[in-house]
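Bug #77: duplicate submission created two jobs. Keeping one. Sequence:
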Amino acid sequence: MCSIDKMLIKGIRSFSPDNDHAIVFPKPLTLIVGRNGAGKTTVIECLKMATTGELPPSARAGQAFIHDPKVADVTEVKAQIKLRFRDVRKQPCVVTRSFQLTQKSGGKLEKKDLDQVIQTLDEKTGERVSVSRKCADINATVPDMMGVSKAILENVVFVHQEDSNWPLGESANLKKKFDEIFSATKYTKALEHINKLKKDQAISIKEFKLKVETLRVQKDHAVRIKTQHEENSSKAAVLSQRMVELGRTIAEAQRVISTCDGDIVGLRSLAVEHGKLEARRETIISENARKYGNLSHVLEDGLEALQEIYETYNDRVVTQKHDLEAHDRQSTDLLNQLGALKERRERDVRLHGKSTAESEAQAKRLSDRAKNLAEIVGQHPEIGPLPPDLAAVAAANGAGATIDDPAAVAAAEEVRGRAHSRLKQLAAAAANLRAKNRREDDAAGAEVDIASRALAAAEESMRLRNEQRNAKRARADEVSADLSALSVSDASVAELKQRMAGAERDFEDRRCAGTSANVAAEIEAKAEEVIALERKLAKLRSEAAAAAAAGENALKMRLKREELFGKEDQCKTLLESRAGRLASVFGGAAAVPAAAQLKPALRTVIDTRVRAMDASRVDAGNASSAARNAASGLAAAMATAERLQGEVADAEARAAAEGDLLPEPPGTPALSQVPRSRFAAYASAVTESDAAVTESEHDLAVLNNLSLVYTSFHDKAAIDQCCPLCTRGFESIARTDEFKALIASRINTIPAQKEEMTVAVASAKHRRSRLQNMGPLAAHHASLVSKAVPEAADAIAAAETRVAETKTASATADEAADRAKADHVAAAALAEDADTITRLANEAADIRTAVESLERSFGASQMTQGGGAGGGALGTQGHQARTPSAIAGDIEDVEESKSAVEKEKEGLVRRRERAESELLSLERAAYSLREEHMRAAAKSDRRTQLKRELADIERDEKQADADATRQAAERAPKEAARNHLAAERKGARDRAVAAEAQADNCTRSLQRDLDALDAADRPITDYVLGGKAAALEQLKGSMSATDGRIAECNEQFGMISGRRKTKQDGISKAEIMKRELDDNISYLKGKQEEDRLTAEVDALVLQMHAAGADVGTLEANLRRQVITRDKLRNEYAESQGRVKTHQEAMEGYQTELTDPQYKGVGKKLSKQVVELKTYEMVNQDLDRYHSALDRALMAFHAAKMSDINKVVRALWQRTYRGQDIDYIQIRSDAEGTQGKSSYNYRVVMVVGDAELEMRGRCSAGQKVLACLIIRLALAETFCLNCGILALDEPTTNLDAPNAESLARSLLDIMHSRKDQENFQLIVITHDMGFAHLLGQREHADYYWRITKDDNSTRTSSAKTSTTDCVLGRQAGQDPELEGGEGKWQTGFRDGGR
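Kept job's structure:
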């Protein structure tokens, strides 16, 4: 059993790092007392650190936990905690934890964990064994050695004062701590892990089932593949031989087609080329005619001569254009220069106007300045007379004044100087007057101050006396009030003394009666009786366990029979539910085999149907291949027809792209008719275009001749003065002019008509050329529409008939395959059920064998038990073995007896508590009377003292009144003298202020005038300094020069414009001659191109006649050959497709056979079946484990919570002295979201039938007491192997009655645990009364006091419970703890014992 013996503290908190402080923990009680701040809590912190490795709250990562280097005046402090304890095997152990705290530069502290050592004794050799470990390892190892969890040590055994109220903390923190105490977290994680494993196992089982089924299918499939591979190989060989023969025939047909196609292409290319050349020639002929008609003069020179003349004229025109561009540049430069000169002149005009205005303003400013100076001289005669030059300027008023007259300027400066001199004189006079007045005022003020200080001193003396008198009066009032309140007499004090003595006698009599001791003896007797009943209960429970073991075999046999019946029922039910389907598969109910033989029989049926399904699938594939080949032939015929239709549509699109060349035929054709084509009007369009060209050329020739006729009419009328047609003379010159005007107007309209007609001729020729170019396209379109397209339609109809036939055959084969597949699916669907039925039948047979074995063994055991019972009967005088129900009845009787004894014990406890409560009431009454007597005596002494003080105050007040009367008589003449001096100083001040104001006004007036004059002089000075008068003269000269340059530029521009016009006329004439040369050269080039095209057309006509055949005959022969070739190709493609189908099937079969999934598929199937069964069994076991663990956790939690609440209730009723709370409980509510084994916790208080949550509703004292009781209950329940409990300041916020009750409860706990060797209670308190209540000699011979020395470091001393003699320190060694870095020293000797 675990217990702690001794602990050494060095360098922790305020414990000095230079000394070793050791403390011994006696049993069953260790008392540690000391003032606040002495270091008592450090002991708890060190115990917690030594056992769990946890730092106290607010330790700043351990830096505040170790002695500060600044306090020790060092840079490094080494600390150590060494704890000696006995583990659960009662073996001595020592755990040592060493630390180091270093002060770095900048005041930063760094904490390090040094050695962490556990020292034990070897059980065999008895030698010390030291093991250094990591902190995490020690933190887990020490709690295991002490026999409790780390959570119990942290939250129950060694709880810091700041964390002591955690049971009434936040709900989340409370749940976390209780889960840690119950170790619920790791069990919850175990349950979650089991659930996760179950899910993973379920997924794996599904995967294994799929794998098993897949492997079964693969095994069956591998057998079928081999047979099908051989059949496809033989069929592919026959088809390959047929394909060789078809290939030779197709090659011969392709050769003939290529020859015909080449001839057709050659003839078509010649026809197309002939059409293009003919159209090009016609276009050139019409273009030459147009050019010839546009010639104004036909030049007879040759082409080369005309080109040389053209180049000459072209060079001349280029030269003249360069000259013209030079003239244009000169004109532009002159215009730009002229614009700049005009802008400059305008700018000078604007500046001249502005300068003239400024000159006039300057003259006005000079006149105003002269007037201002005259006014200043008039106002201040002391300045002197006004100079004549300045007077003349003032009289001119700006008219005719000279701006830069030096005499006037000098006069103005002279007057300004005299004014400034006068201003300085006035300022000096004012300053002298002000200084004189200040000296006189200071002298008068000094006299007034002397009189005021004397008067103020008298007033201050009087004020101080009044304040003292008022303070004494207030004090007298307070004393009178205190006297009134202290209404006590000597008789009442004596009476209180007599009552106090009587109460103390009653308390001593009741204490000596010894009622509590008698009741305690009765309680001990009842406790021994309870223990005896518990032993009897243990024996009965052992007997019940033995009886239960005897019935276990019968239970097993019954369970096996139930399992057998269940298996047989499942097998029978499954057979009945599948009877119809099985009869369908096997061909009748009589043919269905037995359950044990169902699986292999069904497997035989499935294999047969698989072979039938594969055969039908091959037939369906062959039919589908034939259908695909027919569809390919149809697609080829449709592609040919689509291509031909595309060519027809392309021809129509090209015709439509020509716009209105071939108009769209009118009307919408009926659905049964052939669509109308633009090419139907091709022949008529060609005829119409030839007629239009002939007609337009005739009209153009007429217009050309008409122009010559009208010109001759005009000339003849001018010469002969008669009409050229009728030869009638004109009456007058006016009629002649009118006729000439009419003819001239007709001549003027002819060019426009000629141009319009030329355009019409060109348009007609262009239309004819376009129609000629479309000739080959029209012929090709006619061939397509009349022959190729109908033949393609016939081929499509034949192919569609063949496709329909093959589709019918394919559908029939597919139906047969579907029927075979349906039969296979129906049989395969029963495979899993057959497997289950066979498995259930086999399992039922196995269970039946097991049941028979159990029955045989159970019969033998019954015979053995019967013989044993007979022998027992002889030994026990005829008594047989009892049944479990009889034993359970005895257990219930003993438990009822135990409950009755416990109730009697509780009644005795309550009786003792009432006696103790009465004794406590008497003690409180005596204490109250003692306190009341002391207060009454103190009041009597205070009353006498206050009376003496009141008499002194009245005497001092009379003396103060006499002094005040005397000082008031002396004050009046001093105040009158002070007032007279103050009045005289005020009159002198008023006179001085009036004189100073008059001098200041005169000075300010002259200063204002001079400031205004200076402000007016600034623009005058700026005008002169800016040289604006000279700038005005410069502007006048610049304007004259600019006017001269503008006139010169205008003259030069006129000359250049004349030369430019001459050049333009020359260029126009040269351009006319150049255009005539260009027209003649273009005409001659067109004639050359016309001759060349005519020769090429003649050569193509000869080449076409030499071919000897037409395109139509060749195309008919080509179509016949193409049809023959396409039939052969279709047959070849069909054979090739079938061969490819067989080869692909063979390759697929071969690939599947070589695939890894088919290698060793039988072994794989067996292995997967074994793994599937294993995983299913594991999943069932996991389900059982989860349920068992969950039930065990709930049972454990319920039992522990019941024990805890039982202890909590008893301790609360025994300790709490209030009547507002009956008892408290800890409620654990199951969480609905996390399962049954997860709980939320809360502390409730029960008042009558009401149950309220205690957090937030209790006082601070109730909170402390409830938390202490809960910790005591947790220690009672969980600390079976570790009976240690440390309480830090347990009386915090407790009143005296509850503190005393707590002490009695702790004494009861120690008394009940007196036989427990490892029970240790450690109490730390500063309440000496509480310590005396606990420190009875039967529990503790001495207690530890912790104090601080002069250096603020803590020391410890041991004291007895009855005396206060401080023990000295004595160094020594403990041989069991020697070793490590240093040696333990016992801090103090317990010599007081």
